[in-house]
Design a protein that fits this description.
By secondary structure, this protein is of the alpha+beta class. It is 41% helix and 19% strand. The chain is built from 17 helices and 14 strands. Helix 2 crosses helix 3 (57-63), helix 6 (118-126) crosses helix 9 and helix 12 (214-229) crosses helix 14 (245-257). The protein starts with a strand and ends with a helix. The relative contact order is 0.13.
């Protein structure tokens, strides 16, 4: 069995995720944005907007500043001239995926035919006709929020008192259950709020009509996960689309038999890894990038630790006094290694990119890390139309970063 070093595996993973390609010198185009999406295969969605919505950030990390309207158009617009390219579904959590991949999730829609959680089932049992009422409103009025549907139905439904921490109304819960079951889709979001419509009006007819056997669909998802990883263990491949071991092991065996994967060992890893046949391992990786907590390169924390020797946890739900690094922390990628992390906030009202904390990883040249990090923060601020910076006191890089950013502002 071939053996790779962790450094080689890391470069392979970075290349697969689009970090080995030179950033475009000209303004990003639709094609440039789509090229980044071809590497990641999906973009995780998240409601936190401390800096920028999570699905926008990975594209920026790979190609630099771009007009987010290009991504919005791909996801939330559908015209004869420019058909919808992305659609939302439960892939790696809620995510944008290529619209053709929607059919690969039909088996999951069957699993979720009564909703994703028991609380959804309880609401449906309490309101046995509400799902049909919701679909009737959508059929008549088209894409609507849960609140608009309630108004059409002249409902004042009670809000759940159980684990539904978002205080969803019964109508919203039923909309989410129908979304999970694939009966409705989200043709657009406004202010990050889903608008629901019947799936047959959102998904292209040829995709909507396509039936894919679970084993075939899972094999294709594992194939895509392997391409997005370049190299990965079974648990890595399983996590990308939130599959289970029962599904992934036969799929990996099939792909090994077909010559699309090669089993390899990575020094120091306690499990075999699988190398995609088209993966490449560059001799080096150069460049800098800030990675949001939900970037596909790092959203599986165990893999991040194996590849980068970088222990990373999101601390949004950790009480403030117990946080180690901060509320919304971006790891900093420099020349193929994670060399630091910064807690960030975008204060759009005052035009400030706030950096409450900046922390170094051991074993790196901190002077260079600070210089490159300052450049990456300047690039992010320009992209977000923020004018200046405010660096807090937390972290060993904070004093030097404050001086570096101040000197650049003076220039």
């Amino acid at each position: 069995m071939p053996t790779l070093t962790v450094a080689a595996a890391r470069r392979t993973a970075l290349a697969a995720q689009g970090f080995a390609a030179a950033r475009p010198s000209a303004p990003a185009t639709r094609r440039t944005v789509w090229k980044a999406l071809e590497s990641t295969k999906l973009l995780q969605l998240d409601s936190v907007s401390a800096v920028v919505r999570a699905h926008y950030a990975p594209v920026f990390s790979r190609i630099g500043a771009y007009d987010t309207a290009l991504l919005d158009e791909a996801a939330w617009s559908d015209t004869a001239r420019r058909p919808r390219k992305l659609v939302e579904y439960w892939a790696h959590e809620a995510a944008l995926i290529p619209v053709q991949d929607w059919a690969l999730m039909r088996w999951r829609m069957v699993e979720y035919r009564h909703g994703r959680w028991n609380g959804m089932r309880q609401v449906a049992q309490r309101n046995p006709g509400l799902a049909d009422d919701v679909k009737g409103v959508l059929k008549e009025f088209g894409a609507s929020t849960a609140g608009e549907i309630e108004r059409h139905l002249e409902l004042d439904r009670p809000r759940s008192k159980d684990h539904w921490g978002w205080n969803y109304s019964d109508t919203k819960v039923v909309c989410e259950a129908l979304f999970a079951a694939g009966e409705v889709s989200a043709p657009k979001r406004v202010g990050f709020q889903r608008h629901y419509d019947l799936s047959e009006r959102v998904i292209p007819p040829e995709v909507y009509a396509r039936e894919v056997d679970e084993a075939d669909a899972v094999r294709e998802l594992v194939r895509r996960a392997a391409a997005a990883h370049g190299i990965g263990t079974e648990t890595d491949l399983r996590d990308y689309y939130r599959l289970n071991r029962r599904q992934t092991e036969p799929a990996i065996a099939d792909l090994l038999d077909a010559g699309e994967l090669t089993q390899v060992a990575v020094a120091g890893w306690d499990k075999p890894a699988y190398l995609h046949t088209e993966a490449r391992t560059p001799r080096s990786i150069s460049g800098a990038a800030l990675l949001c907590p939900f970037d596909p390169l790092i959203f599986f924390r165990a893999r991040t630790e194996r590849l980068f020797d970088f222990h990373y946890r999101i601390e949004i739900y950790t009480p403030e006094h117990k946080r180690v690094h901060g509320y919304y922390v971006f790891p900093f990628l420099l020349d193929g290694e994670l060399v630091g992390r910064v807690d960030l906030r975008a204060d759009r009202n005052s035009g400030v990119l706030r950096v409450p904390g900046a922390f170094a990883e051991p074993g790196h040249n901190n002077a260079r890390v600070v210089a490159e990090l300052a450049g990456a923060l300047r690039e992010m601020a320009d992209w977000l139309a923020l004018d200046t910076f405010e660096v807090g006191e937390r972290g060993d890089l904070a004093p030097a970063l404050r001086r570096e950013l101040s000197s650049r502002l003076r220039v």
